[in-house]
Amino acid sequence: MTGLPRIIASVIGGVVIAGAAAGFAVTWRPAIAAIELPAAASFDPALVKRGRELAAIGNCNDCHTVRGGKSFAGGLPVPTPFGTIYSSNITPDAETGIGRWSEEAFRRAMRSGVNRDGQHLYPTFPYDHFTNVSDQDDAALYAFLMTRPPVNAPARANELSFPLDQRFVIAGWKLLFLRHGTFEPDSSKSAEWNRGAYLVEGLAHCGACHTPRNGLGAERPNAQFAGGDVDNWHAYAINANSAAPIPWDADALYGYLRQGWQPDHGTARGPMAEVVSNLSSVNESDVRAIATYMASVFGAPTPDRKNQGAEVLAQVKAPAKPASADAAAVQPVEINAAGAAIYAAACATCHETGRALPYGGVNLRLSTALSSPDPRNAVNIILSGIRPVEGERSPIMPGFAATMNDDQIVSLLQYLRSQFSNQPPWISVETAVAEARRTQTVFLQTSPGPHNAPADATQRDKP
Amino acid sequence: MITLKVNGHEHQVESDPDTPLLYVLRDEIKLNAAKFGCGLGQCGACTVIVDGKAVLSCVTPVLLLDGKQVTTLEGLGTIEAPAPIQRAFMEEQAAQCGYCIAGMMMRAQALLQRNSKPTDEQIRAELEPNLCRCGTHMRILRAVHRAARLMDTADASSTIQGSAQ
Questions:
Q1: Do B64 and A408 touch (CB under 8 A)?
Q2: Which residues of B touch A (CB under 8 A)?
Q3: By the 8 A CB rule, do A225 and A212 touch?
């Protein structure tokens, strides 16, 4: 056992003892009586429809559906530093799903992370955010889920070691980290801002990926939205620390969240592709509200950042120089010469045509992946590319996993970083590449569908 | 100069290292099975196999391929002795205009080399990057299943011969 897990284990041990001392009352939760599955017709169709949109905002299908599996039937392995936790079946199946859950039981799970039997749920289910969801919205989500086709799919056993496999431990975690009512409306702000804040801090649980976590797996409140990890992707900082070359504003965020790509920032991919895919199907005003609130979280850019952004945009709009000439002139270092040659031959043909998104490759000066402190997103995208969305106007990129070896990808990344960002070289790119190649295989086997960022529904059927 | 191994033969490539493999295959080595479709890695007509994996040759500069094994459709079989995948596509009459078919066969071949009995679902997922505009998808699907059976039979017969000796 190395240092960190040992410290974690001893802290957990402490929590266990504290929990035991605090007594039964802290951990014990009563079961809520089972009900007969309510008939689908007993739910108001308008409520079900609202629930569908809310479930999309909550991105529920992303974790509760495995690739090629039935919607909401669970079973997705969620890797955590503590072991693998499998998502649960939230279809209304009586035996293996939530078919016997009353609305009260559902609301308790959302609010406090306790299942109908009274067992504590692991916080991979982000009830630290869902606790902010209103009773009306819980009712709509419940109506939506209880009217889905029931799927008999028993839960898979989590792979956790002692004592984390003991659910009473979670009660200790909740004592430390679960705060109810973390969202309070701010009357000095607009209704739209407040709506956005309610969604972002609650159901949309943006911080679950974008906020870094502490040693016990809880979001660090003093680093909210400072960037986190998910499935070997880096969830970018979406506050003042944002690495985006062009500062985000509400309009850009709206476009990105709604259509999955934005001309000055590029394309949503990895886990974020699922999120924007869901957001393309919900009420426009809710996406607008999320964008408005998040723009205020990013904050107005400093004059320096604004100027840098304007410079980058000017460079991008300047007539393109041939990439190879550029590369030869600027890059005397041998490793970058190799990277420059790969860029000129394999990347520039799309990324330097000046053709607008979504059909042209984004000009890499605009790429957050290359300006980010973490190289993993750039590595992932080089390896697996971007798959197009069926029937939509959407970006596409071939992956290069089969043609570029690790050394070639490392050279390319170092070249891209030096050429298209004003940041210092990445350290340990080699490890990132090797690790991405390893986890990519696992991820592709388990992640839900080959979906990617959708185009705006209003653009459907347009050329 | 880059040395390219294509269908078992070594070639000293005279084109610039940043030339896409597709151009080198067609213009320099005169292997015309792989087709130019979009030139952007978006249609799959140029698919060949590199070290066992399906690769889009139009976006693969030869500088990435030093020492790697490239297989094109010409490397699988001949008109006189077509490979199982080629026989299967003919027997199912899976080509209409035929422009996509070389790429389809190469990607299907790569799939069958690592999964000898793919399901419908797996074939569809695998061939998703390859476009066919004539609409022979159902025949292509049947052809890949047929190729799997042909390869299976071929393997079985060689095993029988092997054990008989």
A1: yes
A2: 17-20, 39-42, 50-51, 53-56, 59-61, 63-65, 121, 125, 128-129
A3: no
Nearest CA distance, A354 vs chain B (angstrom): 14
B70 contact residues in A (CB cutoff 8 A) = none
CA distance A345 to chain B (A): 5
Reported ipTM: the value is 0.86
Which among B40, B56, B64 has the least Cβ separation from residue A342?
B64
Q: How far, in Å, CA of A65 to CA of A261, rounded? A: 24
Q: Which two tokens stand for residue B84?
A: 């199982």
Yes or no: say if A289 and A422 are a contact pair by the CB < 8 Å rule: no
Tens digit of pLDDT at every position of chain A (463 positions) = 556 677 777 777 776 676 666 667 778 899 999 999 999 999 999 999 999 999 999 999 999 999 888 999 999 999 899 999 999 999 999 999 999 999 999 999 999 999 999 999 999 999 999 999 999 999 999 999 999 999 999 999 999 988 999 998 999 999 999 998 888 899 999 999 999 999 999 999 999 999 999 999 999 999 999 999 988 899 999 999 999 999 999 999 999 999 999 999 999 988 999 999 999 999 999 999 999 999 999 999 999 999 999 999 999 988 666 555 555 455 455 558 899 999 999 999 899 988 888 888 999 999 999 999 999 999 999 999 988 877 777 888 999 999 999 999 999 999 999 999 999 999 989 999 999 998 865 554 444 443 443 434 444 333 3
Q: How far apart are CA A252 and CA A255, in angstroms?
A: 5
